[in-house]
Input
Amino acid sequence: MDVNLKCPYCGAPIDASFYFCPNCGKKLRIKPEETSVIRQIGVYLLSFFLPPLGLWPAYRYLRQKDGKSKTIGWIAVILTIVSLILAVWLLQGLSNYLNQSINSQLNLY
Output
């Protein structure tokens, strides 16, 4: 442990690799997000099939400093937007179809 580093909150000695202060428990730095292929697939599926929920992991990845995490975050944002546009388009088509069907039924009487 490097004795020159101290917690900015309580002054306790800390190591450069610590994410939290062992004395006061305050967050010292952001823990990097996992970038494995399985994790990426999960984030992408969440972003596409449950679009609003995909923005939370996208935000967490965009906050990271490395380029791979930022790329994962941007892909998640793009998939979320594409999914929302597709859902709106499909709902509009369904609405138009139902409207035409109801109008044709009403015109029969």
